[in-house]
Structure formats: structure tokens, C-alpha cells
Protein 1
Amino acid sequence: MADKMAGMMDTIDKRLLAALRTDGRASVSKLSAMLKVSRGTIQNRIDRLTQDGVITGFTVRVAASDDPHAVRAITLIEITGQKTVSVIGNLRGVREIRALHTTNGSWDLVAEIEAENLVEFDRVLRHIRSMDGVSKSETSLLLTTL
């Protein structure tokens, strides 16, 4: 439903989503003032976007510098045959994968990974590489966020 809804969003919906990406904890009052619409409008739109699956949750993002031991990486994944759906399902079950994207070119998927330390990162990477349907991967560690 989110794909259908994305085409039906107006300017207020898009501005609301942008504001929530910046501050997912912003109050309805703050969002109302920022977007210059009533609190009721903001609440109704949040409710509708959540019900329609456009907004799937609210979360806290911790700055990378707040955990100096965290290991962050981008992993490019190649899938064999018709295994895409099952590989995606398996990858969605890995809590260290922060985001998963389809892509074009020689790679099929891009996974954003964040692990507590190198030992956990190694475990996650080995798990991904051992999944049925994953034929190849390439990983780049993220060092400094600019």
C-alpha cells in the first residue's frame, strides 16, 4: 500500500515526512508550527501515513561518534538464480542491517550494517555470506562521517 500511497502524497505530506526524518520525536505542536498547519491536520496525516504503511515506525538514531566501538559498513550482495525474495526475507531478520536497498549494475542488493564491534561485525558478515542464494559480496567499512 505504501507504493500506492507515495503517488498520492501532497506537499504537506512530503514536508511532514522530511520533518520527521530530521526529528522523529518532534511533537505534533512543533510539526504544526513548522509546517504552518493545524495540530489536527498533522495528527490526522501522521495517523493516515502510518495506517497506509508509509510511516512504518519511529526510531532514535544515535550519532556514530557516540559509540566509538561500533562498526559500520556497506555490503554489496549478488544473488544467484531466483533466490531474491528468500534472501531479502533472511536479511530482514538480521538486526544489524539498518537498511536494505535494491540496486542496478552487477550487485543486486546493498545492505547498511552496524554492529557493536568487530567480533559481531564478523559474525554478521559470515552469516550473510553463508545464506542460500548469496553468491558474492563486497564490503566497505565506513570510517568517518563527514
Protein 2
Amino acid sequence: MTAVNDRLESSADTDPLPESPPAWQQGYSRRLVVVDLASVILAVGLAHWLRFGALPSTDRGFKYSNYLVVSIAIAIIWMVVLSINHSRSPRVIGSGAEEYRRAWVGTAGVFGGVAIVSMLFKLEIARGYLMIALPAGIVFLGLGRWLARKLVVRARQKHGHCITRVIVVGSAPAVRDLTRSLAREPWSEYEVVGACIPGPLSRAEVEVPGVGSIPTFGDEASVVGAVTATNSHAVAITATERLDGRGIRNLSWELEKLNIDLLVSPGVVDIAGPRLQMRPVAGLPLIHVEKPQYHGAKRFQKRLFDTVVSSIVLFCGLPVLVAIAIAIKLTSRGPVFYRQERIGLDGEPFQIFKFRTMVDGADRMQAQLAELNECEGGVLFKMRSDPRITPVGRFLRKYSLDELPQFINVFKRDMSVVGPRPPLVNEVRSYDDYAKRRLLVRPGITGLWQVSGRSDLSWEDSVRLDLFYVENWSMISDLLIAIKTVRAVLTGSGAY
């Protein structure tokens, strides 16, 4: 206890003072205003230029001037709607898909409103103008937000800026779980700098596997002192039996005086924001966890997306498919395609198609290489320098070109473009009830596992990411994963 008291007294003098979270968040929001304004001006300017030219001609000068007014009006309304939709709220900026979703929903609302007003008042706004401005705006807004987020992530990783320092209040196991969850994403906003553990037993620190030691600052009565000592920006309350509702309310009042945010972790893991709805009942803030959606309109949207994407890839990529097939046939013996039984939706088996990247009969050689398996957990077999891979196959694997024939599986409804990794039969035999939930949706060519490390992931992380996707999938997340996959494939990261 003496060590804890000494830390409370000395930490305020020895710890560096980080920037105030309101300062960096407000500064970032102001920069986003500039980014959004530039994106909106580019979108309406591009539509105006492509539809009417750079300068008015003598025969359509009046129409050009009128549309110049329309462009300015749309740009102003667009910026206002983005603000009304809280697309630059400190609660969503810098991480997650919600920031993009709010910007895109606001954009769709603007153009939907323009279309309705045009129809009601017979303004006859050129459809070509709107058809250019809408997609251009979505692209420019998304690209601008992405670049701004990249700058924030770089500032966090290289300079330690744009960080929210957090004191965690809860039992030691809960502190470890929350700290490990935040540490999995070092680019995230929050950094745990200390803990307060309610209870009669005191300890100097909490050991978090894979992270290090988290200093403690006493029990729940020491929270304000811990915040001051560490110059923290927020307090996160997680599972604890000693801090009841009244105690949390009193703590929130104390933190309010210091302008410190209070976060409450409900202890429900791997549940994304869209499934959580706050429902005040009898003065209590109840969190309603929506059931995962596997049927109905969302499944129809996903199937439509799969059909369109697979058709485009197979049709437009036909020359590439033929070239790869010729290269495989000329450089090694054996068939062009590799077929293997995988397990799909609801545990139904199917034949997956891939370009052959190994020597013919490679499956029979796996037993000889079993001791060289580099996959943590031992369920999968992975080697960085697998001697069975052909030179052409190594190139195909690096850029995931060997998986192009899987779009045939997508077209046949065996797979989806985005989903969990398609498991082998022997993998499924080892599944527990927890892992079997991966089979509630169709497996995908790409997924969270693809954009989060690919072959570098451990078995445990692969299962965790797949289950997070299964529990929380949406069309917005599918689109973001598909976009991130392009970058992962082009860089060849985590592929072997």
C-alpha cells in the first residue's frame, strides 16, 4: 500500500503531460471540416465541369450560371447535413466504420432530398450532373477520411500523439482482458496507463500477458487520485462486484468536475456497435444486444453483392485466368486447378477451386513435414518456406492470384466474397461449440482474417476474427473489408 501511495504522490511530477483529449479531438474535427469541404467542392466541381464544361458558351450561358448556383447550394447543404449527421463527432472519428457510414448516409440523404425537391417543383436538374456528383462525393469523402485517419494513426504509432490515456477500474482478470483487447490494435485511441482494483487486497501492479505490467493505484476510492497522478483523459469501468450503480453515478459526478470521460465496458466481448442499442427503462440504462442477422433482407443484399462481383471478376479477369493456367501448365506437371473438400454454410461440404501452387501430390507429403508446422495451435499447417510450392505458385500465393477460381464457388453459392475462412474437414472435427458458429454464414474468399495478417495470424486470432465477423456482419463492413483486401493483396503482406 505504501508503494501505491508513493506512486499517487510522485506520478504527477514525473509523468509527461500529454495533450488534452478535447484539444486533439477538436483539432482533428476542424481539420475534417476542411477535408470534407475540399471533397464536396471537388465532387460538385467535377460534376459541373464534366456536364457543362469549364467555361460557359454563348448558347448555354444562362444554364451554366443557374447550375453554378445549384452547385454552390448543394455544397452548402451537403456540409450542413454532414454536421447534422454528426459525421465529425469525437465519438466516431479516427476508428471504426461508423465514421464512414455517417458520411455516406448524409451524402445519400442530400441527393435523395435534391431528387425529391426537383420532382416536386419540376426543377429539372440534369440527371447526368447528379449521377456524377453522388459517386464522386462518396469516393472523395471516403478517401479524405481515410487519409486523415492515416495521419492520426501515424501520429499515434510514431510520436505518441492523439492518444487517450485510460485508468481501468475493475477486478484484476477484467483489467487484463480489457488491456489485452486494446493492445491488439496499437493504432487505436486508448492506452491503459493504470488500474484501480476494488477489494481488500492491494497489489503494486497487474501483469498482462503480451503487454507488460500495469501499475495500480489502490481501490475504487482512489480513482480521482489515479487520474490526476497519471494525467489520464478517461476512466473505463469493467467487471467488478464492489462498485454498484450508485458508486458509478457518484464517480461520474467527480470525473465531470475534472472534464474526464467515463467509459463503461459491459463485459460483452466481440459485439460491434450496430448490435448494441441503449434502452432507458425505469431510469436504468439497459443495453439491448440485437440478435445476429443471418436471414431476410441482409442476406439478399449479400447474395446480390456476391453475384455481381463474381460475375464481373470472372468476365473481366478471363485473360488473366487463362494466362495463369498456361503458366502453371508449362512450368510443372499436374492439373491446373487444385480441388479440395471444404466445409461451408451449416456444415455442408463443397469442392473449393484454386490454381495449383504446389507440386502434384503435395498432400501426401504433408505428414513428412508435420514437425515443421509454424501455425500456433497446430490445427492448420503453415510453413513460410514450404518446399512443395512451385516458383509460379509462390508468386500466385504472394498476390492471392491462386484464389481467383474461388469466384466460381461464389457464383455457385458455395462461398461468399467476404466471410470466414473456408475450413478443412479435419479442422471442423476439432471445433468446439464456440468455433462452430463460424459455419452460420458462407465462407469467404476474403475476410477479417485476410486484412488482419493472413497467414501471420495464430489459430486463436483467426477464430476470434471469424466469429467477430459472423456476429456483426453488415454490407458496410463487407465493402470496407473488400477495399482493405485490395491493399493487403497488392502489398503481399502475410502471404506464404
Protein 3
Amino acid sequence: MSTTEHVPVMPKEVLEQLALTEGATVVDGTMGGGGHTRLFAELVGPTGRVIGLDRDPGAVERTAAALADLPNVTAVHANYADAPEVLRELGVESVDGILLDLGLSSDQLADRERGFSFKADGPLDLRFDPTRGEPASKLLARLSAEHLADIIYQFGEERFSRRIARKVVERRRQAPIETASDLADLVRSVVPRSKNHRIDPATRTFQALRIAVNDELQSLELALGRLPSLLAVGGRLAVISFHSLEDRMVKLAFRDAEQLEVITRKPLVATAAEQSVNPRSRSAKLRVAERVAP
């Protein structure tokens, strides 16, 4: 995929809350399609700097090419939790803003070879970085029904988790579950469709496996402990989450960090107008905190 389909979530709110000025240095920890990255680069101008990180090497390559007209952008293939090491390597001592936009990008959903979309018949991979770790198909092949049920319940908040896990174990005795559509059809066969029909029955299971495969909550926990020290006093950390577990982690980390002062007492959400044109924004919650302690 050479172009991006991704639309940045809550761009106006992010810019307002980060309060960046010309000449500032900012980290986009989840660069994705580069929507926020471009906005930052245009705002901070040629005297500023934007450092974009992403775990997905394809996203880094694609977005670096798309932003080639912005010489103040540096794109790096890295986990946002490793931002301290990246900045040290680049000779950057502190930054004025950091954004984490958690979850999937539209580009990843559109890539039929990654398995993120259960509407496509691609391999069931679900890794942000295909060069590391274990694809979801391997996870389904080796875990016990109890372990799978725990993952699907904890990370997907799926109340039919045990029913799904039992069906997975039963099915894999006959043939491996190797594609996204294999798993989606299996889940739909045992989970009733919701009354409003807006959410596919497979959604929560795919979300849970993606979080498990990519160690997303562990990365977020590590980052929330490490990123505040990268901010200059007055710099701000903004996190957009799409899952209640992530939002709770951000809320508690911001509240408990001695270096931070919470700016958003309640999370900001996308406007009705944005939700109507960008469905991904419906579950987005934006929290912001400011560095106050040296």
C-alpha cells in the first residue's frame, strides 16, 4: 500500500490541548498515516522538529515518503515506549509535546495481508510489526481454552469468551484457524448479533487478540512511566485511547505521576460532526497532562 487512507482523530482538540508554538519539538509516538504528524510539522514550522515513531515498518516507510516535503519531520521505526532511547540517539534532550494515538489505523485495516479486518480474507497475523513476535494464528493454535477465554474476556470484554474459546479448540482439531475470515465466521457462529447490528460479533475477539499479540497494555504501562521525564517543564503529554482498559491506565497514571498536572479532568471526546464522518472517532477519549516538576 503506497498511499494512506487514515484520517487523524480529534485533530483540532489535539492541537489546542498540546498548545504547541513555532520552534517547538514534538513526538508523535504513533505516527500511522501521518495525519497528526503533518499538522504538528506545519504548526512548529522550519525551526521546530517533529519526531514520528511507529511499530509498523510499513507505516514508517509510507509516511516518511508522504511527508518528504516537510524537512522538519524525522520518521523512526520504534515502539513509543522506547522514545527515551530514540531521542537520546537523535541528540534531543527534551520535547514540548508528545502524542499517543492508540489502536489501529485505517491503513492497517485496509491491508488484506495483515488480518486486522475480519471482513478481509487475509492471514490472521494482527502484529503491528510483522518482523517481531508471534502472529495471532499461532496463538490460537497453542493456547488452552482457559487461557484464550481469559484473553478474550480481559482484553475484549467479551461475555461469550468461554464459548468462543471452546469453539476455537474444537475447530483447530479439524483444521488450523489461519485467516481472518476463518476466525470471524467461527465467532459469529457462537455469539449472538447485537440488536443494533452496528458492531460485528467478531469485533471484541479481534481486539483482544490484537492487544495480546502486540503486548499493547504492557507497552502503554511502560510508556506512561517513561514519557513524562522527556517533557520540558510546561510540555504536555496527550493520549487518545479507544478501549476502557487503556483509558483507565492513562487516567490513573496521570493522576499519580508527581511530574504531571492533569489538564483534562474528564476525557475529551470527538464532536458529533467528526463522529459522523470518521466512525473510528466514536470511541476515542483524549486525556492530557502537563509537566510541572523539574
Protein 4
Amino acid sequence: MAPPPIAGALEIDFTGLRSAKGVLQICLTRDPSDFPDCRNAASAIKRTVSAAHPRLRIEGLAPGDYALAVIHDANGNARLDTMLGIPREGFGFSRNPAIRFGPPRFSAARFALGTDAQIQQVRIRYLL
């Protein structure tokens, strides 16, 4: 029987925040069907961190492909506020893919995590 894979760690730095108000709602998943919101995802990792301290470390992750999505929930209502379908709050994704119409696909935000610690820098973007 093979030993279980050694767990890795992920450090996430969030840049470009307009303010330190509110929280960052984070979704980290290995399942493309759960990306980007993790709303009904039992296997996704969800975290909330203060926008005043925009850094997070997650340890004990199995090696594999992941994608991360984040919203800057400035008013703390636990959702991304929109106006006419356009986000009124900040958002970001691992690997900082180009944003066209709607969120990027899992493949555009996917990164491989091994047994070593990895750092992802996520730029928060605002459209309004």
C-alpha cells in the first residue's frame, strides 16, 4: 500500500484592494463545477478574512490542480453586489486571468499545487 501524499501549503496575498472595509470571501476548489462561487460545494475550501489583513495561509492541501476565486465583500452581506449584472464590489482569481464577459473558466485560473508551499498573488479588480 502506497503512503498518502504529503500535504502542501498555499499562501495567498491579495493586492489592489480599494479599502480595508469588509471581508474577503474566498473559494478554493479542485472541482471545475464548483468554480467560481463554491455555493453548493461540499469539497471546496471556503474562508473569510478581514480586508484589513489581506493574506491567508491554508495548510494540509493534497497535491493537485486548484483554482481560487475571491470577492471583496465591502459591506459584509456575504454576496457579490451587482448593478445590471456588473459587479459593484471587487473580485479576483488565481493566476489573474483576463476578464471578458463573466468569470473565467476553471482552466484559466487553475494552478498546480505540490508538496512544497506555494504563493498565489491575487489582484482584486473593480469594474465600477
